[in-house]
Amino acid sequence: MKTNRNFFGFSIRSGDVIIYDANGAAKDGDLVVGNVVDMKADTARTVVRRLFTPFLVPSGMSDSEPRLVVDDDRVSIMGPIVAVWRGG
Q1: How many other β-carbons are positioned within 10 Å of the β-carbon of residue 21?
Q2: Measured between alpha carbons, how far is 87 from 17 in angstroms, rounded to an integer?
Q3: Partners of 41 in the beta sheet?
Q4: Residue 34 vs residue 1, higher pLDDT
Q5: What is the pTM assigned to this prediction?
Q6: What radius of gyration, in Å, describes the C-alpha atoms of the chain?
Q7: Which segments of the chain are extended strands (E)?
């Protein structure tokens, strides 16, 4: 997955390539890729957050969004991040 925004608190920049394990089990403290569904607007977006069960927590430095509660309906974990390659 190639990022189109900065996550400075996680040292991830726009253009970096994130590799996540779609079959891996995320543990507390892991950086994860999550999916957030807006059922009213019929849209979904992908986020990068740190997992502190049951919350997905933003970096706090570059993201003003509140923590999200993982409910596997509106907010789900796609997988733990296993590598990040710096984009050009």
Answers
A1: 15
A2: 6
A3: none
A4: 34
A5: 0.84
A6: 12
A7: 17-20, 31-38, 43-52, 55-57, 68-69, 75-85
